[in-house]
Write a structure and sequence with these properties.
heterodimer, A: mainly beta, Collagenase (Catalytic Domain), Immunoglobulin-like, six-stranded mixed beta sheet, five-stranded antiparallel beta sheet, 4 helices, 14% helix, 37% strand, B: mainly beta, Porin, eight-stranded antiparallel barrel, six-stranded antiparallel beta sheet, 58% strand, elongated
Chain lengths: 329, 214
Amino acid sequence: MKRAIVFMAAAAALMSSASLHAYLKLGAQAGSKIVPLHWPAFPVRYFVTNRDVAGVSAPQLEQAVSRAFASWAGVGEVPIASEFVGFTGAAPLTGDGMTVIGFQDHPEMDRVLASTSFTVDTVTGEVVESDVFLNSTFSWSVADGGESGRQDVESIALHELGHLLGLGHSALGETELAGGGRRVIGAASVMFPIAFSAGQLNRVPRPDDVAGISDLYAGASFRSSTGSVTGKVTRNGGGVLGAHVVAFNPASGRLVGGFTLSNDGTFTISGLEPGLQIVRAEPLDDADVSSFLDPAGVDVDFKPAIYGRFVAVPRGGTSVSIEVKVTSK
Amino acid sequence: MTAAWRRLGVSLLVCAAAASPAAAQSRIEFGAGVIWTGGFDAGGADALEPRNPTAGSAPLTLFGTSPRLAPARGVMGSAAFYLSKNLAIEGTAEYARPVLRTSIGADFEGATGTSVESRLRAFMAGGSVLYHFGAARLSPFVLAGAGWMRQLDEENVLLVTGREVHAGGGIRYRIDRHFAVRGDVSATAREKSIAFEEKRRILPRVAARLAYRW
């Protein structure tokens, strides 16, 4: 068995990450193929560092992490389960075969709230170990209603555990430039790469997150009860790489996003409710492109566009292939 | 029989025929025509994103929608059986191509594309009871009945089936011994439709047809 640390995902702040190789999911090299990064079995057995930080004790961190795991486990038909093994003096990010979650000082990462790393079996793509650090350079809180000026541990842990389970970043969010960085105005996914402002809560997986985690772990009944939209995004007849494509169901109000991941502009968004969807394509311009994809070749020079026909998603099947035509900015 | 009696016999026969033309007609009538069914608000939500509380309280609107099923014209055929001079039962079949459409508004990033639509296929088969008030050349009638409807989206991927009930009235104008034109207006209540909100909807329906009776 060949093991290597192959991936470090950034979360809740801007930081470069490895490529996403499929909609919402992290990819791992397995032999000659890229496969979705995933846990082979549950429960995920994890340790929590026995280190307190101002405002958050180690037991409080463990409880917040436990609630965040429970949020992912509660999204329907996924078999996700976790088991707190105990407190440890080991630091996260050590590649020691233990999954460790805890605080660590990284003052040099002044825009990174937290990060997740993996040890992956490069033959199967299965996760062997994953570690999450929360940057203790920032101020943290576990208060039920949040605490002004402090990041909410459970919200950020929910995001990082999404990575730990195999999800990449979602682009379902809008931002504005503020203070030399980006401020989130709104986000329809806990996996958006930029966190809500300090003191705000974001503790509930959204439909986009549910579709992604279900696509990774749910069984046949989920696939037979949901459907997919497929197609391509083109400009002047050529494919657009790196477009963010959103499927919106007006009946439920659910937004689920995906990406065009090849030069021909093709995309597939899975885990959708059957019914008519509105499809919208936009450039990846609400966060650094590298938060989502390898920036090489990603095209952000086009206007957002809405496909002019309702797209019918069949139960247990895939829509007819559509072509969303975009124009240059 | 004398010539006088023969003339009287022929005259009586002609009079009898003129007095009750319906008595010589079949009880079956076929019709074909056009229908118009009203549209409705198809429900549906705007595309909203939870807002960062420090940036405001209302959800962020990625884009707004206002779906409607547009009024639709279609074609229909019918076959009626007259149980009596006034009372008939009738079966109908209808086909229409209504358009489900939404305008897109308030896109947060000014996306191109201002409307999204799908042209549906709508079939309906039903039955009605009709009561005609009199047998004059111009006669009003009332009708009531029920039907079964089937709708498909334009890609034939989504299928919705459901029941409908209807009631209304109209006018029938007899052109000659065989042909008549008929117009009716009714209200049709439908349990289901391809839409974004499931609820019973009551729609106006207007039909005009040419009828032929033996």
